[in-house]
Amino acid sequence: MSDLEVLLSDPAALMDRDAAALLPAAATAGAQVRSSPLSAASALAAFVGLRPRALVVIAQGRAAADAAIGLALIGSRSPVPTLVSAVLPSWIGALDAVVVFASDGDSGGLGVASAVEIARRRGAAVLVRAAADGEMAYAAGPSLSVPAMGIPEALAGPSRLTTLLMVAGACGLLGEMGGAPTSAEIGLLADLLDAQSLMCAPSSEMFMNPAKALALHLVSGMGVLIGSEPVGDALTAHGAGVLAEIAGYPAAVYTQEQLSQAPALVERLTRRPDIFADPFDELLDGDDAPIQLPLRPVVLKARPAQFPPVTGFAPLLAWYSTITRALPNAIALDGPELVMAHSQGWRSGSFPTPTGAESDGPFRPLIADWAAAAVMMLRLDFAAVYIGVGAGQAAPLDSPAGLGGQLSGRGALRPDTVMHIARDQEDVDRWN
């Protein structure tokens, strides 16, 4: 049994090691989804009824990776071009919609603040997700949206994703997909993420905790994150980023197209181990050869097989089925399957059907895709935190509050989301 496995089996020791409170911060995914529409309400007013020439997201690093997930969810069905850029395009004008994601505690720096001023001066509709103070806040003015959750930005992906989809909905870019997310849909998605947080919590037993299983899978070798369709491809970048920043763990990232063009890597990934082999032999290739870590693939899929026809999409789904069968030691994160398991509660009447929901689940296709991506994002985040806590990694540079407002990761959780440990016959709240 590895040191990490021993630690993950002891919830009390886990919480004691988590000095930066990253575990409760990771569990705020549902709260981030709930609070983001309220935080952005004032800035969103400028987008209502707008039919922009283009939707441009100004973001860098982890924020750009999360913005790419949102634009992949919208996909080619958007009636206008959408793009992520590190700088403000020179052609931005009054006909465009601009979303700016500050990337860290300094609110993105003077260069991005200048871009915000230029976009507003040219008459573009602008929303700026940033801290309440600093150059970015001053430049944003009424376009500022301050995150309600005070958590490190590496774990704030659900907030960024929600904000971007709310802007797209307000602009009418989701018309062919059922329109903007409703408050009922957002509430159901947040409840789903709360349930997933409980499943991934430190108190959850090893054999029932998917995040702990994912963490142990990754640390036993070198992680290879593989996307199987556009949203899954974008999620691999998020996963690699959070693993590096929170856990100090390097992971390789491959899209379906990239992996298909690397037959040598595919051959190694699909190599089936000898059941009689010494597990330590996998680390060495000859007496004088350098250490070679075993590969630990993780395959991500965010869209279901019954997804409406999109050019070239059916082959990707067939490829996902093939690659998951071919990889003997892969973990497959099938987002639609995870959401469908939660849908059993909808069928049994455990929660109400939102307006416009499909007859076979609680979410219409766009929101179901969003839910699938959010669940996989949450599991990757929790796995990164578990690896980081086990390795004793330093806290993120923007810990503990990131860009957030008054609510911290410890204080913003619902009572039923925290973990209780019986100690000396008394329930002790280990999250607060």
TrEMBL record:
One of its GO terms (molecular function) is carbohydrate derivative binding. The lineage of its organism: Bacteria, Bacillati, Actinomycetota, Actinomycetes, Nakamurellales. Transmembrane segments: none annotated. This is SIS domain-containing protein. Residues 40-184 form the SIS domain. InterPro entries: SIS_dom, SIS_dom_sf. GO terms for biological process: carbohydrate derivative metabolic process.
